[in-house]
Amino acid sequence: MPDKLKYSTISAWAIAVSRALSASGVDAYAVFDNAGLCLDEVESAPDSRIAIERMTRLWHLAEQATESEAFGLTVGQYAYPMHFRSLGLLMMTSVTLAQAFEALPNYSALVSNSASIKLQRTPDRLGFTITPLPGVDISPMSIDAFFTTLVHHGELILGHGKFVLSVELMRAEPKNLSPWQNCFSCPISFDKQENCLWMDRSMLEQSTVMGNPKLAAQNETKVRDYLDKMQALKWQEKASQAIHAMLVSGEPRAQKVAQVYNISERTLRRKLKEEGTSFRDLLQQKRRELAYHYLLNTELSITLLSDKLGYTSLTNFSRAFHRWHGTGPADFRHRSKP
């Protein structure tokens, strides 16, 4: 299974959770204590990181304490640009909101590295898409909070929220839809394959009053510096995280992973070799972890699982799986069922 301790989120999210809890009349200190977090320490270090496993527990406890499955929407109202430091300021100082959203996928790891973020584009729409990494458990409320925060930031820049056209969510449809309808004021669908915030491109491309290219460039440099410090991991750990994210949408390649860290493919392979591993070994290890996850936790067919993991044929996947576990994937799933 994936090593969850390598996946984290910026403490600014926890601070927003504490504000929302207090506004809801809930003792934030008690909830944080139950989650194994010290609220005073979190608030004193908003740039620090919280393991995603612990953050997911905090979301779960917050939902219980507030008795609201829509609590993530409330949290989004308390996540201000200043909480996300240079990334928030980068959004606020970009010449257009479209430019800000274009930059976010490149630096989304600052907010959390537990999901794959990409942009979908049509001639008239821009889709901000978040897909949780397989095997990494994150709360649906964190997606609600993220989308609400993006809308809130957009409203601060444009002066309105009319740029949101529709919202697609992976979470199950709640019994009471009104909190989501009131929050987004647009068509909302649930039980989707991915989370996507669809926006009007023409509105996003309007120049903003706060746009300042010089300040935006300075903030972008600060974001990169933060990520460099945050990602002070071994190269095999960096490459493994990138492979995990890329497997969500396609076949990971060494060249693409190298581009994520602004180095050449040759340099990446050399650094991995110096650590006693290779790109091929890391890809196989991640495929093995995800195959285990999908077989035990989903009903995904073996054929679709083979495709999702990037194998050119079901035969190749079955052969690799037999090498790992001494049995075929179908037999492994059958034996693992209670």
What report would you give on this structure?
It is a single chain. The chain folds into 2 domains: 4-214, H-NOX domain; 233-336, Arc Repressor Mutant, subunit A (Orthogonal Bundle). The protein has a 5-stranded mixed beta sheet with strand order 3-4-7-5-6. The protein has a two-stranded antiparallel sheet with strand order 1-2. It has helices at residues 12-23, 28-34, 39-44, 52-66, 71-76, 85-93, 97-107, 140-158, 178-184, 201-204, 213-230, 235-246, 254-260, 265-274, 279-297, 302-308, 314-325, 329-336; strands at 8-10, 49-51, 115-121, 125-132, 164-168, 188-189, 195-200. With 338 residues, the chain is an alpha+beta fold.
Short description:
With about 350 residues, the protein is α+β, with helices and mostly antiparallel strands. The protein has helices spanning about 10-25, 30-35, 40-45, 50-65, 70-75, 85-95, 95-105, 140-160, 180-185, 200-205, 215-230, 235-245, 255-260, 265-275, 280-295, 300-310, 315-325, 330-335; strands at about 10, 50, 115-120, 125-130, 165-170, 190, 195-200.
Question: Topology, pairings included?
Answer:
Layout: E1 8-10, H1 12-23, H2 28-34, H3 39-44, E2 49-51, H4 52-66, H5 71-76, H6 85-93, H7 97-107, E3 115-121, E4 125-132, H8 140-158, E5 164-168, H9 178-184, E6 188-189, E7 195-200, H10 201-204, H11 213-230, H12 235-246, H13 254-260, H14 265-274, H15 279-297, H16 302-308, H17 314-325, H18 329-336
Parallel strand pairs: 5-6
Antiparallel strand pairs: 1-2, 3-4, 4-7, 5-7
Helix pairs in contact: 6-7, 6-11, 12-15, 13-14
